[in-house]
Amino acid sequence: MAQLLTEKEIEERLSQLGDWTREGKILQCEKKFKDFIEAIAFVNQLVDPAEIAGHHPDLEISYNKVTISLTTHDAGGLTEKDFQMAQTISELK
Questions:
Q1: Which residues are within 8 A (CB) of 15 and not within 5 positions of it... i.e. 6 or more apart?
Q2: How confident is the model at residue 57, as a pLDDT?
Q3: Which residues are CB-neighbours of 56 under 8 A, at least 6 positions away?
Q4: In degrees rounded to 5, what are phi and psi of residue 17?
Q5: Largest CA distance in the chain
Q6: Whole-number pLDDT of residue 76
Q7: d(C-alpha 93, C-alpha 30), whole Å
Q8: Tell me, what's the pLDDT at 41?
Q9: pLDDT reported for residue 24
Q10: CB atoms < 10 A from the CB of 48, how many?
Q11: Which of 7, 2, 51, 58 has its CA nearest to residue 29?
């Protein structure tokens, strides 16, 4: 099982992710697109990286807006896996 990060480690890593915020034990990012088609195209880009990492984000889709939430459920909070996946997602266009 992945090890939980300390508060200091979380703050350090979060400062390197410009478009992500922290909501308790969850990293969250909101992406806005021109329309629903572009939002779904973005979500489809998440499939391969999530499968490869074995770490899947929670997603909320509302027309042209996608909210991405990351946490390591089996560890009960934020781990390195969450920040690695957040970085990967941030690099998608």
A1: none
A2: 97
A3: 50
A4: -110, 95
A5: 39
A6: 94
A7: 13
A8: 98
A9: 96
A10: 9
A11: 58
Question: Would you list the DSSP string of the chain?
Answer: -PPBPPHHHHHHHHTT-TT-EEETTEEEEEEE-SSHHHHHHHHHHHHHHHHHHT---EEEEETTEEEEEE-BTTTTB-BHHHHHHHHHHHT--
- Site of tokens 């499968």: 51
Cα 13 from chain centroid (whole Å): 13
Lay out the sheet containing 65-70: strands in order across.
21-23, 26-32, 65-70, 58-62
Q: Give the pLDDT of residue 18.
A: 87
Write out residues in the chain with pLDDT < 50, as ranges: none
